[in-house]
């Protein structure tokens, strides 16, 4: 139910969520607690009487929230100091990774680390990343973070004729392997935003228990790329504003690397640059570059909704129901409820990577539940195996056992 003062956070989960191993700070013994109960206890912005989102009244709908997130100047706030390294890929490419605090200030050690994946054409400079890391890497928590910048993003150069796609998890694996080698005993928690959330969830579903990440968060995940594309094209603002804007962002990214991309003789770059929608861009470049038969073949294969039941670590999925980019109709409610490792949280308002709150100089409300989740799971992490959950009969589930909490 909506309130005139805000909207409640609705959470969906299986009745028998995964069991966490949580160390009791007083007795130093390991105790067992269900994921849902642990989140309810430690994440008041997600579950409980305080789990409300109060949107900025003059940014009152999903379109306004999305526009404010895209066009507001966030320079000069949430400043994060990075140190950049590069990871080579098997095809001769490279991926830029940005560490914070800089390694010169904080050499590699066992500090718990947040691994971040950004959205389409984004990077470590994005405000939605910086405002979260500002909380987590500074006192009193002092965690470490590393942002994976997709090929050619965040002012990085490409060294092979290939960019990235929403489902190219082969680029995530070598980077996470590199991170694990750098900090072999540090707990790793992943968080992805928008397209990065889709890539992260797909990767987690493919890896299952093999992933070195012990927990994760997915924010504004589009989940179903075919459904999302159709949802965009169904409305005037989606077809003539959002889709062309996304296509233009991709074309701008391409233009910076055109001298390398022209080495791929399969691509007609002049034809690519004439694309007016994101579907046309993906049809003319992404699908061809990654060897798909059609653009729908690419969208189907890349959609993380088909992998979410296979995720084997605690995962928070946070979406706004009025998100015009990551449509509510694409949220895999049943699959999230089926998987005992997942807490799905939605708000009625928020737009795409918005969730602005406060009247003067609005801030992102979503940073509160996300930081609470990260801190709670990092605190729960069992130092002996870096994975605070048990794979035993206690975690078997029934598809019908469901918890839906709307405060």
TrEMBL record:
Assigned protein family: Belongs to the AB hydrolase superfamily. AB hydrolase 4 family.
Domain AB hydrolase-1: 112-207
Single biological process term from Gene Ontology: medium-chain fatty acid catabolic process
Species of provenance: Funneliformis geosporum
GO molecular function: acetylesterase activity; monoacylglycerol lipase activity
PANTHER family, per the entry: ABHYDROLASE DOMAIN-CONTAINING PROTEIN (PTHR10794), ALPHA_BETA HYDROLASE 1, ISOFORM A (PTHR10794:SF63)
Protein name, UniProt field: 6006_t:CDS:1
Record Pfam families: Abhydrolase_1 (PF00561)
Active site (record annotation): 194 (charge relay system), 323 (charge relay system), 352 (charge relay system)
């Amino acid at each position: 139910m909506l309130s005139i003062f805000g909207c409640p956070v609705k959470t969906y989960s299986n009745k028998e969520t995964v069991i966490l191993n949580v160390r009791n700070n007083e007795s130093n013994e390991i105790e067992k607690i269900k994921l849902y109960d642990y989140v309810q206890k430690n994440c008041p912005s997600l579950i409980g009487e305080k789990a409300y989102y109060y949107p900025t009244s003059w940014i009152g709908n999903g379109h306004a929230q999305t526009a404010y997130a895209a066009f507001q100047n966030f320079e000069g706030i949430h400043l994060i100091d990075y140190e950049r390294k590069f990871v080579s890929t098997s095809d001769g490419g490279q991926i830029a990774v940005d560490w914070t605090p800089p390694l010169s200030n904080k050499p590699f050690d066992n500090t718990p680390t947040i691994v971040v994946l950004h959205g389409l054409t984004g990077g470590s400079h994005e405000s939605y990343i910086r405002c979260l890391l500002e909380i987590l890497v500074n006192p009193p928590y002092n965690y470490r973070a590393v942002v994976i910048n997709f090929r050619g993003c965040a002012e990085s150069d490409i060294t092979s004729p290939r960019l990235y796609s929403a489902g190219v998890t082969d680029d995530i694996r070598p980077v996470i392997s590199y991170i694990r080698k750098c900090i072999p005993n540090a707990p790793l928690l992943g968080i992805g935003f928008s397209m990065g959330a889709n890539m992260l969830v797909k990767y987690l579903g493919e890896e299952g228990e093999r992933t070195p990440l012990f927990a994760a968060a997915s924010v504004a995940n589009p989940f179903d790329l075919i459904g999302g594309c159709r949802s965009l094209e169904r409305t005037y603002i989606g077809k003539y504003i959002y889709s062309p804007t996304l296509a233009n962002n991709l074309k701008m990214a391409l233009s910076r690397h055109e001298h390398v991309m022209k080495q791929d003789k399969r691509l007609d770059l002049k034809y690519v640059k004439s694309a007016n929608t994101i579907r046309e861009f993906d049809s003319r470049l992404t699908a061809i570059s990654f060897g798909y038969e059609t653009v729908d073949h690419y969208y189907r294969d890349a959609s993380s909704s088909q992998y979410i039941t296979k995720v084997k670590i605690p995962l928070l999925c946070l979406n706004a129901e009025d998100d015009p980019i990551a449509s509510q109709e694409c949220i895999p409610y049943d699959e999230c409820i089926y998987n005992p490792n997942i807490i799905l949280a939605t708000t009625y308002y928020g737009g795409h990577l918005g969730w602005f709150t406060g009247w003067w100089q609005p801030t992102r409300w979503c940073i509160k539940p996300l930081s609470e989740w990260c801190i709670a799971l990092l605190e729960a992490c069992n130092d002996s195996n870096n994975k605070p959950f048990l794979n035993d009969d206690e975690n078997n589930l029934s598809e019908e056992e469901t918890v839906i909490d709307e405060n």
